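Slide 14.
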Amino acid sequence: MLSQIKTQQSFINGSFLKKIAAATMLIDHVGYLLLGCGILYILPPGDPRYEMCHFLYRVMRCVGRISFPVYAFLLTEGIVHTSSWLNYALRLGGFALLSEIPYDLMRVQKPVAFEGQNVFFTLLIGLLTVKAAERAAGWIQRWRIHCRGMGEPIYGDGWYLLTWMTAIGLGCVAAMLLRTDYSSIGVFLIVLLYYFRQEPLKKCAAGFLWMFAASGRMYYVWGFGAAFLLIYLYNGEQGSRRGKYAFYLFYPAHILVLYLIFCWLMERGGMIP
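Slide 15: predicted structure.
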């Protein structure tokens, strides 16, 4: 049944997924900042409007769970198809720095804060983790071929697994130390999606179970389920490349706009009708 649906829904290409990820991220941030940190902060808990806004807040945060898995998947596709992973990493790093002030403003209402770093840092660490594991695994493979030619003992695939586990561990530790958005959970998801990139069903099932278990919130199940269903239905095509950098710029730009709206809302305070 799923394979039939996947064949029919050929419009789900990379460009479509980017639009879905951007839209759901916007919904998530509106819920987090304008509702969670704004209206719900102003309204007293006994107010009937509070319950309605709190329900809407949970719905919007659930919808927002679609965003990161899709971005993580698109990153793994980018790793596979990019002509230069180093340029890709530099691009992610540049936008990570550009986005940090807007992110800090949204998160703690300060222009510079070291309590947490934006999601571009998570994506960058995920990319570096994958490439480090691949490079190290390649060195081990060449060493094993050399040993075979020299007639020396050849160790099993345990070294290959150990290489990946070491790279994953270092990547997760780096994300935790930097306190990036999604932290080690996000880095491990990126590696998971990349490792199973040629097995769509296994990739999506493993990713869904990991994110749902790591989130610890039951109502997120619908958002994560929708995310990995969209990923499963991906048709393997990149789609339109128009506005490529607009998707990168959308992240800091929309956060900054939402923060300005938040400031206006907080200035009004209890004057909400």
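Speaker note: The CA atoms of residues 96 and 120 lie 5 Å apart.
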